[in-house]
Amino acid sequence: MGLTHEFFLLRSESDDEPVEQVVLSDNLVLYIWDSLRWIPAFNPSTKENHVGLNYHGITLIRHKGANLLKDICLSSSHLFSLAPSTLQLTGDFVMDENGNGRYEKLNFTRDDLTKTLTTLAAIADRAFLENYFIVHHDI
Predict the structure, then answer these.
(1) Do residues 32 and 138 touch, judged by C-beta distance below 8 A?
(2) What is the pLDDT of residue 48?
(3) Sorting pLDDT into bands at 50, 70 and 90, what band is 2?
(4) What is the average pLDDT value for the chain, to the nearest integer?
(5) H or E stretch covering 66
(6) Helix 110-130 crosses helix 63-81 at what angle (to 10 degrees)?
(7) What proportion of the chain, given as a percentage, has pLDDT over 90?
(8) pTM of the model
(9) Which of 15, 37, 67, 89 could form a cystine bridge with 10, CB 3.0-4.6 A?
(10) Distance between CA atoms of 1 and 79, rounded to whole angstroms?
(11) Distance of CA 128 to the CA centre of its chain
């Protein structure tokens, strides 16, 4: 799968045993990154509230952020549900060893993509409704 982002549902900030978890590919996270930067969050390393996920490091998503994460995931899932069964998205601009540049082509299957996003949405909804926490582990 390559680089991944793990999202863990925890009962409390100090809990070590996740209730649920889901893994998203780094390519998918980067594709929806702009909207993920709207989520109110907490950086446990700096002990500061901020907005957006930490790409390098751990992010703690609390009540309000969980609700927004749910909405972002459901909206993205709905959008991707309109795609053909296999879809190609545009990724990062990359250069080869000769200095030639091109955009990466990211291949996904619609059903896997929508299932992953709805699973994360369900975890976020549970965090919101039950006052749990989501911990995001970066790549």
Answers:
(1) no
(2) 96
(3) confident
(4) 95
(5) helix 63-81
(6) 160
(7) 93
(8) 0.92
(9) 15
(10) 22
(11) 16
Q: Write out the two tokens for 20.
A: 């649920």
Distances (CA, A) of 76 to 7, 14, 20, 45, 105: 17, 30, 21, 29, 19
Contact 61, 136 (CB under 8 A): yes
pLDDT of residue 1: 55
Report how many helices (DSSP H) and strands (DSSP E) the chain contains, helices first.
4, 8
Strands 48-51 and 86-95: unpaired
Q: Following DSSP, what letter does each residue of 39-71 receive, concatenated? A: SEEEETTTTEEEES--SSSEEEE-HHHHHHHHH
Cβ atoms 53, 39 nearer than 8 A: yes
CA dist 11 and 132 (Å) reads: 5
Query: What is the per-residue pLDDT across 20-74, written as a single tens digit (0 to 9) for each?
Result: 999 999 999 999 999 999 999 999 999 999 999 999 999 999 999 999 999 999 9
